[in-house]
Amino acid sequence: MSRAHRSPSRRARRAVALGLLPCALLAGCVVLPSTEEAAAGPVAPEEEPATETAAAVSVEELGAGERGEAVEVDVDGPVTMTYRRITIPPGAGTGLHCHHGQLLAIVEQGELTHHAPVYPGGMHVYSAGDSLVEGAGYVHEGVNEGDEDVVLLVTYVIEEGMPLAQTDLALCDG
């Protein structure tokens, strides 16, 4: 059939396909029909495959923290990953606890006084923009000794089935 005699629906289908080609190549989510399938004509409505609408991807950076040393995350699997924003008001703290896995955090606001045996002198103060890693097993506590809220962005990587924070200290390593 000559170009002049093609039906408008076929031309429209080709124009849409050509218009979607750059999106398909970028997104990798559209499968175009083969030449033989395209030549076979339109698909009956009950046989039409589901289509996906391309949408823009949105990214919101929640925080970034500096750490002057390497970070290793090593938790026996399977694991549960949990993300939280934690606010500690002035004078409050997390209470003594440990983790059955690891916790990675960024101080978004305020200053966190962290009491743990992993620091010389047993304490370290983290300020806004700092990051911290809590390892498995050891007893520790975070306290807000300042006059503004401490806000933490926290990722827990914990053995599946275990609590995010273990408050029964007999189940901690020390």
Helices and strands, with pairings:
Elements: H1 8-27, H2 35-39, E1 79-88, E2 101-109, E3 111-115, E4 123-127, E5 131-134, E6 141-143, E7 150-159
Antiparallel strand pairs: 1-7, 2-5, 2-7, 3-4, 3-6
Model description:
Keywords: Dioxygenase, Oxidoreductase, Signal. Residues 1-27 form the signal peptide. One of its GO terms (molecular function) is dioxygenase activity. The chain has 174 residues and is α+β, with helices and mostly antiparallel strands. The protein folds into 2 domains: 3-47, no CATH class; 79-171, Jelly Rolls (Sandwich). It is built from 2 helices and 7 strands, in the order H-H-E-E-E-E-E-E-E. The strands form 2 sheets. Strands 1-7-2-5 form a 4-stranded antiparallel β-sheet, with no helix packed on it. Strand 3 and strand 4 form a beta hairpin. The N and C termini lie far apart (82 Å). Residues 1-35 have low confidence and may be disordered.
List its salient traits:
Jelly Rolls, 4-stranded antiparallel beta sheet, 14% helix, disordered N terminus
State Rg.
Answer: 28 Å
Main sheet characteristics: 4 strands, antiparallel
**CATH superfamily (homologous) name of the largest domain:** Jelly Rolls
CATH topology of the largest domain: Jelly Rolls
Residue stretches low in confidence (pLDDT < 50, at least 5 long) are 1-35
The number of strands is: 7
Q: First CA to last CA: what distance? A: 82 Å
Principal-axis shape equals: globular
What spatial order of strands do you see in the largest sheet?
Answer: 1-7-2-5
Signal peptide: 1-27
Keywords: Dioxygenase, Oxidoreductase, Signal
Pfam family, one: Cupin_2
InterPro entries: Cupin_2 (IPR013096), RmlC-like_jellyroll (IPR014710), RmlC_Cupin_sf (IPR011051)
